[in-house]
Amino acid sequence: MSAHYTKMKEIPKTYSAKDHEDRIYKMWEQSGAFAPDLDPKKKPYSIMMPPPNATGTLHLGHATMLAIEDILIRFKRMQGFSALYLPGTDHAAIATQSVVEKKLQNEGMQNPRQELGRKKLLEEIRKFVDESKSTIRNQIRKMGTSCDWSRERYTFSDEMNTAVNELFRMMYEDGLIYRGGRIVNWDTKMQTTVADDELEYVEEKAPFYYFKYGPVVIGTARPETKFGDKVIVVHPKDKRYKNLIGKEFDVEWIEGKIRAKVIADECIDMDLGTGAMTITPAHSLIDFELSQKYALESPQIIDFDGKIRPEWSKACGGMDILAARKKVVEILEKKGLVDRIDENYVHNVSVNYRGKGVVEPQIMKQWFVDVNKAVIDWKKKKRSIKEVLQDTVRSKMIRIIPDRFEKIYFHWIDNLRDWCISRQIWWGHRIPVWHCTKCSNSFFSPTTVQKCKHCKAPNISQDPDTLDTWFSSQLWTFSTLGWPEKTPDLLRFTPSSVLETGYDILFFWVARMILGSTYALRKTGFPEEKSIPFKDVYLHGLIRDIHGKKMSKSRPETCIDPLDMIEKYGTDAIRLSLVIGGTPGNDMRLYEEKIAGYRNFVNKIWNGARFVMSSAEPSIKKGEDKINLKKLSRADKWILTRLNEIIEKVTDQIEDYELSDAGLTVYDFFWGEYCDWYVEMSKVTKNPAVLKHVLKTSLQLMHPFMPFVTETIYGDLCPGTMLITEDWPKPNPKWNFPSESDEMGRIMDLVSGIRVLRAESDVDATKKIHAIIFAHEDIALVLDKAEIIKRLANLGTLEIFENGEKIGKALTTFVGDIEIYLPLADLIDFEAEKKRLHKEIDDLAKYIQSLDHKLKNKKFLNNAPKEIIENERIKFTEGLKRLKKLQEQLEQVSK
RNA sequence: GGGCAAUUAGCUCAGUUGGUUAGAGCGCACGAUUCACAUUCGUGAGGUCACUGGUUCGAAUCCAGUAUUGCCCACCA
Q1: ipTM above 0.90?
Q2: Contact A844, A852 (CB under 8 A)
Q3: For chain A: N or C, fewer Cβ within 10 A?
Q4: Which DSSP state fits A18?
Q5: Is A3 near strand B, with its CB below 7 A from some atom of it?
């Protein structure tokens, strides 16, 4: 028993991820490998991690994001970049406050806001965030994320608050931020406004009512908003109503007589409903815009709790929307004003995507960011936010991957309205503006003030509202680096190299970062190309279940928890299954069998390494894997040539963000070429230096994808070094042996040929049979590799000749010119073999015929490129050769 | 209503600028435990590339249209 064998027994047969991952992660973290090397000669590469909610837990979206980002950062770090991967968490304003309020309600509180007051509720939330923050941090670590924890940031830290206030000041003084009474989306449940793109629509079937309103019939799904309607709008070209336009009259309505007038506007769709509508300016966007246009009143009908204001109706005052709707219809019915009711009307109800509270349009004083005011110095002109948003992408300063999202992005900008940034919740950055009740002026101040800036009176109070969470998120890429101070980190790492996130967040966040970054950095002296937040945007798809459906908590059987999967299969396996098979911007299906499949690959690597390290000195001593060019066998030359090709291919694929392909490239190479062939050949004759070198290089190539298993093995293979900080492999120009590679290709085909013959006959698979080869030109090659052929094809004896008489009573095949015979006389079912040959000859004949047809087609010969024609000719002659051999075989068998 | 994506083997997906006798993994079938690995190895069956036209010497690939599925945006008085 050799010493190597003893060593092998010490290594477990299967790789147990759990036994290594935490230890390896700790080693990386403590070594300082996650922090960027600040050597000024190194080029910067940076990724700002999209911050998960501080109170959240890791889900598949995070896991995908972390896997992709970590692959990129590890790759760049190994390539020698000064690679910064900055982690952080988000205070997630509305989401977090609603979670804590709900929690307090479950603990018995009726209305936490009222009962606790602002200060105490904020304390509660802060406590909750502090307690739960470590959960997500540890889960990020579990994914193997190589981010620099010493630079961790939080969107609601004091530093971040300084940055938010500074941005607010700049925008406020530029007149970009203004306060105005406008129609906003009011969430009656959370008691706050929400932005336009935070709305979600739920389809609902509701009756659609037609009411007689004076001389016209109007249609509506919302009778409860109609108390104060006194303007009828029709299309100016509508013949039905032409003579009514401009007229006034009394109409009988819900609460008695109303003086109504008729106006005309182009915005009316004549084909919709009756072509006439009354307007409710306070609770509909279009109606509001009309009321602005024609200077109409806009009285509030529904209050902020979603109830009818009492002054409108004795019967309905204080009622909920649905109850009031019923009541109004009842009243109108009694008055005989209901024309008809369509019961099958389907419309969309707006809800807040956070918490799903019903959203009502309301007119309120809110803070807005003007997207049309030209204030940014951009390419020698003052430009608006909208213009800059468009230019950064149109001019390719920012590249969106996949590029089809650029169109979606432009479309979004075209429809962009001023951004409502104030929220009526407490958990968030407070609006740094003070109002004076005496002179009714407002002014900016980030700190507490005692007196009004204008009239010096002490009657001042801070604006009660907080900022939309995306207002602070828009600063993420540069406030994390110290802005507004010009820190070395900021100067070095901005713009980020790539922003990686899900496509569902393109508008919420990606667009707003472009907005915030270009504005703030241009204002503080950065040139245009340094003011963008990132150069590339990589958008990953959503993870779905095996049927392509969204994973949903209501169907737990379809849900995959990444942490469970890590526990069961290891982090490397889950990382691979989230990356392989996915392309940017496309959703991907995930199921447990897939993860198990990649776990098998992880184990394959483990065992490949186990073999190599047990069959040679287990570790590589310094310089020992230097390859001696003079001592290379054909097999060595083949695998080294392939390795060179693989290095080049994988590098290109990762550079091009083709991560799935890159992963598959190393997978196929390691398993299908290195293990299946080279390692098997090494069991006959081995070159330990090459064996180890290819293993070592493969580990380097696979490391970004599967950091744990590769680092674990590397630790044994190259003691004293850490894979995470190793150099990314480069192809070695000396290892280019195309002719030996071709030769080995023929040897492998030959082995496969024999295997096929064996499998087709009823020969016991374990039986060591005899084979005869006529190798012709390849005689030296086949003689050289005879032992390998014997072993891989499981032959007992092998005779090799340059040439010879065709052998009867044998199974035969050929590879190129090489003839192979398995003289198994009594074991062969010659009838079956004849049948097989007939079929093969028939298929081949058809194929040759089609080629012949093609090669006789003058149009083909005139139009196709030379190489293609040449190729077809080769295929044709090869086919003929093969056909001839098959026919000879058939003759032999038939004898 | 507008737009985007997908449609290839039983399942999940590849298929580079048009030129392969259309591939992989899983699953299935048959066979294999001599010392890296049964989380393994070998072999195989299985496809009118959704449909209809068109462009071309040549189409899974390009164009037009249709169908199915999913998503996004807008509107819904």
Answers
A1: yes
A2: no
A3: N
A4: G
A5: no
